[in-house]
Amino acid sequence: MGVIQAADPSVDQRLADLEAYVRNAPAQSSLRDVSGPGHNAWIMISSALVLFMTLPGLALFYGGLVRRKNVLSVLAQCLALSGIVTVLWWACGYSLSFAPGNPFLGGTSWLFFNGVTDRPNATYSPWLSHNLHAMYQLMFAIITPGLIVGAIAERMKFRALMIFCTAWMFLVYFPSAHLLWGADGWMNGLGNDAARIKAIDFAGGIVVHMTSGWSALVLCILLGKRRGYGREPIVPHSMVLCMVGTGMLWFGWYGFNAGSSLAADGIAANAFVATTLSAAVGLCGWAVLELIVRGKPSILGMCSGAVAGLATITPASGFVSPGGAVLIGALAAVATFVACTTLKSKLGYDDSLDTFGVHAVGGTLGTLMAGFLATPSVNAGLAAPRIKSFVGSTLWLEQIKAGALILIGSVLVTVVLYKVLDATVGCRVNEDVERQGLDLAEHGEEGYTH
Predict the structure, then answer these.
(1) Cα–Cα separations (whole angstroms), residue 293 to 40, 117, 338, 339
(2) How does residue 4 score in pLDDT terms, banded at 50, 70 and 90?
(3) How far is residue 398's CA from residue 8's CA, in Å, rounded to a whole number?
(4) How far apart are CA 376 and CA 393, in angstroms?
(5) What CATH topology corresponds to 37-179+190-431?
(6) Residue 5 has pLDDT above 80, yes or no
(7) Whether 43 contacts 132, CB under 8 Å
(8) What is the CA radius of gyration of the chain?
(9) 76: which strand partners?
(10) I want to staple 99 with a disulfide (CB 3.0 to 4.6 A). Which of 95, 316, 391, 425 is the partner?
């Protein structure tokens, strides 16, 4: 008996597949296992943009804010984490974050990128190559521990920080990414009908900014203040580098937010608009607040306001209207300004470069505001029955529950990891090293010669 071959798709089926491609909907016939070139192109660009945020954006932003004797130490920490996290991601991180598993952690089916090919994985995107999805998500995994660097700059041992961040990825980042973004994650309100907490996080307000920001606060408190903090001036050595780094972060953030649509579509376009507006309003808001409080706006303040607006819009960027983005940017300016000035001064912790004040406060605020301002008119996925809509809804409560659980987990893990590391390898450099600077003592190099 001869083999019966499947009939070629009809013209109508081919046209339907092309329409599905434009709409970023699943193909039904001949293109079902084919990646879409336009969507792939956008996500390759977005992946590069997000990596650009860390190298060199975040590195220069932080490098400009520390003293000259510690510039290379900050650059080294950002650079080293990029390499370590990439290897972890290939070996097991991507699988533990996104592979089918249980509600709290992914499985092992994609270890060492096994089965991660150029064909789409329809679970996450009908047209995007699976290997590009893995690469795009890698860039988020790289920058997240990099944010922690800002809170402990100028006083933590390089070796201790690398060990801490490696363990932290397994205990905080990979589980958080799966909980919020994994197809079967316990908190994934968009992708999982069985989710117990139906939260939304478009581009990482919880997974990136809350995890790193709250961990950074705890770590800087446990590590203690820099020597001379509060008694002698500790000022940024180069606001030029800080400004350049801020521009790079803003530029790269378009990949961070608009790329999180995983397609070159209308949702990506809306996220692009929201990102721009929130950053601009955050920048202007900080400038106005400094003008009122201090009599003059500073470059550092404007840079901080822009990054605050970007961090705060992140979880909501693919869900809110332009007006919502403006409101979020304005709230971000006020909340982060108070956190970085009044709150930090009153509580006395030494968050060296305001990782907590900008990223934790911004990410937490943005997560809550997504619950109030998200609208199906921007993202039709919100119209699904599992997401209750919206005025007087309970989405804001789901956001609080998800954020609170991730916050508590991040804090507890950070405390335990610090105690173990401090009792073994030691976390803080000695007084002589701190006075000399970490560049020479930790790396045998100097960023600036005298």
Answers:
(1) 47, 55, 11, 14
(2) low
(3) 47
(4) 13
(5) Ammonium transporter fold (1.10.3430)
(6) no
(7) yes
(8) 22
(9) none
(10) 95
Contact 109, 100 (CB under 8 A): yes
Residue 414 CA to residue 219 CA, distance in Å, equals 7
Token digits for 304?
């901080």
| Nearest-5° Cα angle at 267, 270 to 329 | 35
Tokens standing for residue 67: 């003293």
List, as own/partner pairs, every contact residues 17-25 make where C-beta atoms lie below 8 angstroms and the sequence separation is at least 24, other chains included: 20/126, 21/127, 23/265, 24/125, 24/126, 24/127, 24/263, 24/265, 25/126
Placement of tokens 């975040």 in the chain: 58
User: Tokens 């950002």, residue?
Assistant: 78
| C-alpha closest to that of 386 among 205, 191, 182, 102 | 191
Return the closest-CA partner of residue 427 out of 62, 164, 81, 76.
Answer: 164
CA distance 220 to 161: 12
d(CA 168, CA 177): 13
- Segment 12-50, tens digit of pLDDT: 888 888 888 888 888 888 788 888 899 999 999 999 999
pLDDT band at 1 (very low <50, low <70, confident <90, very high): very low
Contacts of 193 (CB under 8 A, 6+ apart): 386
Question: Cβ-count burial of 215 within 10 angstroms (0-12 exposed, 13-18 middle, 19+ buried)?
Answer: buried
With a cut of 60, say whether residue 346 has pLDDT above it: yes
3-state secondary structure the chain: CCCCCCCCCCHHHHHHHHHHHHHCCCCCCCCCCCCCHHHHHHHHHHHHHHHHHHHHHHHHHHHHHCCHHHHHHHHHHHHHHHHHHHHHHHHHHHHHHHCCCCCCCCCCCCHHHCCCCCCECCCCCCCCEHHHHHHHHHHHHHHHHHHHHHHHCCCECHHHHHHHHHHHHHHHHHHHHHHHHCCCCCCECCCCCCCCCCECCCCCHHHHHHHHHHHHHHHHHHHCCCCCCCCCCCCCCCHHHHHHHHHHHHHHHHHHHHHHHCCCCHHHHHHHHHHHHHHHHHHHHHHHHHHHHHCCCCHHHHHHHHHHHHHHHHHHCCCCCHHHHHHHHHHHHHHHHHHHHHHHHHHCCCCCCCHHHHHHHHHHHHHHHHHHHCCCCCCHHHHCCCCCCCCCCCHHHHHHHHHHHHHHHHHHHHHHHHHHHHHHCCCECCHHHHHHCHHHHHHCCCCCCC
Count the Cβ atoms, other than its own, within 10 Å of residue 315.
38
Cα–Cα dist 308/282, whole Å: 6
- The count of other CB atoms within 10 Å of the CB of residue 266 is 14
